[in-house]
Amino acid sequence: MNPAHRSPEPIRIRLASTFTATPLADVLEFWGDELGWELEPAFAPYGQVFQELLATRDEPECPRPAARVLLLRLDDWLSEGARLSEAVTDLAAAVRTTAAHSGDPVVVLLCPSPPGGAPEAVRAAEELLVTALRGVPRVQVVSSAQVLSGFPESGWHAPYTDRLGAVPYTESGFAALGTAVARAVHAWVAPRPKVIAVDCDNTLWDGEIAEGGITVPPARRELQRMLVDQTRAGRLVCLCTRNDEADVLGVLRDHPDMVLRPEHVIAVRANWRPKSENLRSLAAELDLGLDTFLFLDDDPLQVAEVRAAAPEVTALHLPADAGAAAAFLGHCWPLDAPQVTAEDARRTASYRDNHRREEVRRQSATLADFLDRLELVVTVRPLAAPELDRAAQLTQRTTQFNLSGVRRTAGEIAALADRGTECLVVDVRDRFGTYGIVGLMLFGARDGALCVDTFLLSCRSTGRGVEHRMLAHLGRLAEERGLAEIRLPYVPTARNVPAADFLEEAGGGWEAYEDGRRVRVLSAGRAAGAGHAPDRGAPQRDAPAREAPDRPAPGGRAARRDTAELVHRTAEELATPDRVVAAMRARRTDGGRQVVARSGAVPPRTPLEARVLRRWEELLSPRPLSVHDDFFALDGDSLKVVQFLGWVYEEFGVELPVATWSEGSLTAADAAAAIEEALHPAAVPAP
Fold this sequence. Notes:
Layout: E1 11-17, H1 24-35, E2 39-43, H2 49-57, E3 67-72, H3 74-79, H4 84-102, E4 106-110, H5 120-133, E5 139-142, H6 144-148, H7 159-165, H8 171-189, E6 195-198, E7 206-208, E8 213-215, H9 218-232, E9 236-241, H10 245-254, E10 265-270, H11 275-286, E11 293-297, H12 300-309, E12 314-317, H13 322-330, H14 342-345, H15 347-363, H16 367-374, E13 377-382, H17 388-397, H18 410-418, E14 422-430, E15 433-446, E16 449-457, H19 466-480, E17 485-490, H20 497-506, E18 509-512, E19 518-523, H21 524-528, H22 560-573, H23 577-591, H24 607-619, H25 638-652, H26 658-662, H27 668-679
Parallel strand pairs: 1-2, 1-3, 3-4, 4-5, 6-9, 6-11, 9-10, 11-12, 16-17
Antiparallel strand pairs: 7-8, 13-14, 14-15, 15-16, 17-19, 18-19
């Protein structure tokens, strides 16, 4: 990704681990550069997992992290003689409490066991922890199997440095672990697509329908399984293909090897028009912006056409090989879903319900008749703790009917509730099904008035009187509490004109705050009497709703072309730990600062000195130029000493004492001489 899109605010990550995890800092810096983010990791001392969880509850003034990450190698607790099941049970309770109290995402990464496989007690403890935290709001558990998925375990472990300084993994192992951390954080803070539009021929199956036959080999079925999983995570799957629609639907319905079936697909565009045009048509039908679309096609010309004519779409070119295509999709970070709300899980069904509502709308003579036939039921009730994520999602995605336009995280809403702000959600259902939680109101009493902080309603529910019932509910609450008026702040944005129109219709008068915001003031009685009076004209289809992404990109959204380029680089060039390590080394070599710590740069004089100096170039910044440059003057520290000694052990099979290198100066010439001495010790004189 273009570094010009770096976020202006750092993305803070708090990490605690059962081992020395600071080697992850370089990996996270690398991924921050790739993503265009300024990642700011803060590491607790190793072994301080519980202490870190407890400390975060007592530091409300500290800057809020984007995520808290726990790196657990459960074998470390086993070696301490702890009763592992009790420790894991206590940890699960602490994680639940921290997530609920802070509102910040907590990512629990279960790290691979030492060579030889995990003992039965460790396997049982991992299963216990995964089960205990499954479904807990804002908690994501990544099992050791998931961490290792796609990253072969060979080359992970470093027993020598584990023994020296509790550094259990090699450079490649830490690259894999750091990639898992970066990917988990990305899933919580980066925008997610809402729609996946997929080509069919040589994408969902091998072959072309028009040529008389297709096959669905195992790798294509795996790709289809991934798409079905995406529908369960709340994404809408559409087909965009150069075929006849009847033929395409026939394959989905009748082919025995298909995993993706008609019930998984929300809409189809099967014709020979430009695919960018078909994507625009799908966006209009679904009332979603093109910037919420991700497009998959094996044909580079079709991908190029979409990128040129619809640049808002994230258009990805899938490899032609079926296995490579499935692997590519597995490395597509924007499709990760760390947690799924109830509304997400039923999104495809919800859009099908909307199609049925549109049919009733077309059959209704007037808007009032249409609303009567819907049999709308609106329920206003207090927000429950498990619904915090959905409430935050509404503040982040609702742009049209949102009085203030303020976006909030689940943690921020929880903090408001802790300070006495009342939080109400709005459920809506009709004869066709439930809309889910579509509205949110945050408010409190102050100076004899009911002062509203947030008043919003999802665009798919506006124009049906729901907003009027919300206002009437607040009016009745104010009357019951002896409050004379309702105060509704309004901050104009580029898209919330419908909210302003509603306030004008509600009546009352405007007051101005000192900061320039305006407040609509209504008497409690007037608000309590708010009602919807639909006109008697023919019902019109709702204006296309352009919901915002699930969450804003950190510091502003980067161009979609950059998103596609990042996905391709991640899936193709950085798909293994060794490739990540190579890219990190290349970046250090290309961009690292160079200084000479001693006057007169002396180049390597022996092959051994050259090997040592090359390793130092990989470890240090500034990079050394001379075999007499001082390791510690080049930002070397005790951890890098341990890493260097681990390399010596792996490369030469000799152990150099740590104490020798932890004090005073250390040069590449000194290190090479020590290695040579260990390899070929001087003959001991006979007595």
